Recover the amino acids of this structure.
């Protein structure tokens, strides 16, 4: 399945995979429109998801955050089944971490239900990696990482890479 894959060796990475999902909205009826991840080795991949015919919810406020129009997702997105198979191939057997577990887990469920498949990886919240002090420090470190990033667009693979860098700064001694 075609996707965008980039390896950036400029910064050390934490040996965990990190995922981010952009969606049509934040509440009931919302669904994934872009999924991106960074592997434990630092490779990043991202793809748009074409809304299924019964995925009709659209929140202009969410579009204002990620900048992806519904028309762009419809025209350039991949079928839910293709995206689910691709994720299973790329992430099989791994634990993948995210910072918005409640939303991301739900959106993955929507994707996999539409595809008629089960994930072959496990999604966990990043807080499972952190002790109390590390969790407290993550917010300020994350803000610092985001502020130094040359690409400030709010998109799935960019956000996953920045989150992985923030986790690395919190968990890996300098």
């Amino acid at each position: 399945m075609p996707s965008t894959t980039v390896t950036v060796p400029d910064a050390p990475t934490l040996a965990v995979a990190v995922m981010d999902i952009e969606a049509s909205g934040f509440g009931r009826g919302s669904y994934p429109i872009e999924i991106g991840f960074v592997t434990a080795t630092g490779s990043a991949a991202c793809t748009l998801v074409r809304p299924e015919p019964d995925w009709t919810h659209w929140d202009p406020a969410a579009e204002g955050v990620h900048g992806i129009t519904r028309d762009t997702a419809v025209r350039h997105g991949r079928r839910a089944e293709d995206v689910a198979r691709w994720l299973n191939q790329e992430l099989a057997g791994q634990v993948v971490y995210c910072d918005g577990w409640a939303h991301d887990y739900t959106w993955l469920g929507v994707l996999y239900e539409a595809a008629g498949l089960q994930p072959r990886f496990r999604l966990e919240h990043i807080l499972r990696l952190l002790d109390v002090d590390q969790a407290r420090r993550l917010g300020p470190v994350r803000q610092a990482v985001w502020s130094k990033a040359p690409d400030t667009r709010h998109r799935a693979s960019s956000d996953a890479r920045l989150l992985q860098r923030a986790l690395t700064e919190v968990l890996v001694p300098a």
In short: The first helix runs from residue 60 to 66. Confidence is low (pLDDT under 50) at residues 1-11. The longest strand covers residues 17-23.
